[in-house]
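A quick aside before the break. I want you to see a complete sequence-to-structure record at least once, exactly as it would be stored in a machine-readable document. Don't worry about memorizing anything.
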Amino acid sequence: MTTIGILGAGRVGTHLANKLSAAGHQVTLGGRTPVETAARAAGTAPTVAFADQPTAARGADIVINATPGDSSLERLTGLRAELSGKILVDVSNATRDAEDGLPGDLCYPGSSLAEHLQAALPDTRVVKTLNTMLFMVMTAPEILATPPTAYVSGDDEDAKKTVNGLLADLGWRPAWIEDLGGIRTARAAEAMILVVPHVLRRNGFTPFAVSLAR
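That is the input. The structure line, written in tokens, reads:
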């Protein structure tokens, strides 16, 4: 059993919390306050605990960043002490909204949120994954007719192996996981978000992932 803190109590964080808790992990869902977290995460499994984000990070072996990507860097830099020595799994996309509220331009063109997080948190092992799909596919990849791809980027090989184990608990088969290499490769995975709003405008929130076909 792994102790996991999830920062962000929206749809992404709640789905991840429920699935990882069902897999036997001890999960704490962290919002800006425990009360707000509990209110936003209605329908969360009874085995999931609630806390503010510093508490959720402090008590975890692995921390998942599911906060809005455009504010993640500032938010997580403020948790440097709580994240020290931890694995940080970054599933967020840092974009500026278009006029219709869908993702628009990248906040870090020519770079990535994951790279900025790793630079700002040198004592934390950052791994980027699960940012190239709609939230429901993160925890149920088998719902797609075509096998999806979960891209993984990170400088620490042991941290990536640990994250691959979490992906397996979420239903991801080894053949569906594509290790791109070091954290610098996260800029490629994060750039894939630019495809997503165009697909959503045409098809709505039908589950899909930006995947490799072999």
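Two observations worth writing down. The radius of gyration is 16 Å. The CA atoms of residues 67 and 75 lie 9 Å apart. We'll return to this after the break.
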